[in-house]
Amino acid sequence: MQRPSHPVAAALGLTAAGVLLWSTVVERRLFTVRRHTLPLLSEGAAPLRVLHLSDLHLAPWQTRKIDWVRSLAELRPDLVVLTGDLMGHLQAAPALLRALQPLAQTAPTAFVCGSNDYYGPILKNPLKYLSAPSRLSTRVPDIDHAALTDGLERIGAINLNNSAARLELRGSRLELLGLNDPHIRYDDAGAMRAELAALHAADDGGETAALRLGVVHAPYQGALGELLDEGADLILAGHTHGGQVRVPGVGALTSNCDLPNAQARGLSVWYDAHRAAFLNVSAGLGNSIYAPVRFACRPEASLITLEAAR
């Protein structure tokens, strides 16, 4: 029996083909829930379940993803937070609202937007993501962002873009601080602070301290610093896709922003010389329709249980 002339090359070829098949056909459809528990509530407070969704990049034909998102209402969250890049196609808004409606009917829902909620996807060179991220908007927005925002608000979602809101959940007082997407320089910390000040203008001084949640799409260090300055205890972000393609033993090769690659997915701590906050960066549930690949980075939602310190 004649041996293959290049057995190593053949093995490498089969391995590459297997990786390509897994990352483009299988893994990007393996939706999962990543769970965390954080001791952020006051003594005796009832636990709160925060469902964090990001980067759906939804296209109208993605029925499997739509059904999975709808099924998350079965988790019975107390709060749902959406951190942008919900749209993945110019005509995705009706499918997106259908996917999110059961969640909005189950729990208070808040959102900020990402660049893909203003700009439809286009074909790009994926190698550019390994260099400095582009932060320049060179196109006219082609998504009807006003209609998208109106649709989200009609199903009951709270618009946190450069804004703030207050909620009372299971006896705990929460303040949500939101920034629009720093990746395209739409963030305005001054407007967010003004909204927060308006919330406190009617306080009589007797209100109990609130837990503060910072919400932003792209976790640029400047935006994280602005949320720290306003006393955020927990910051929720997306944008990075967790690297989208991760190297086992190494992790993400890029965060597509100035966040350290080691923090491109999951729970960590963000701090400066004076304060610190937990930071959860979701790897998201989707990808651009022009880059249908995930490797060692399953699409995910995060379920974060907030409880009293033990």
Can you put this structure into words, describing what you see?
The chain contains six helices and 14 strands. The longest helix is centred in the first third of the chain and has 20 residues, at 7-26. Helix 2 packs parallel to helix 3. The mean pLDDT is 91. The chain has a single domain (33-308), classed as Purple Acid Phosphatase, chain A, domain 2, CATH 3.60.21.10. Strand 2 (48-53), helix 2 (63-71) and strand 3 form a beta-alpha-beta unit. The chain is globular and about 80 Å long. 24% of the residues lie in helices and 25% in strands. It has helices at 7-26, 63-71, 93-106, 145-154, 189-201, 221-229; strands spanning 32-41, 48-53, 79-83, 109-112, 157-159, 163-169, 172-179, 211-216, 234-237, 246-247, 251-252, 266-271, 276-281, 300-308. The chain is an alpha/beta fold. The strands form three sheets. The chain has a six-stranded mixed sheet, with helices on one face. Strands 6-7-8-9-13-12 form a six-stranded mixed sheet, with helices on one face.
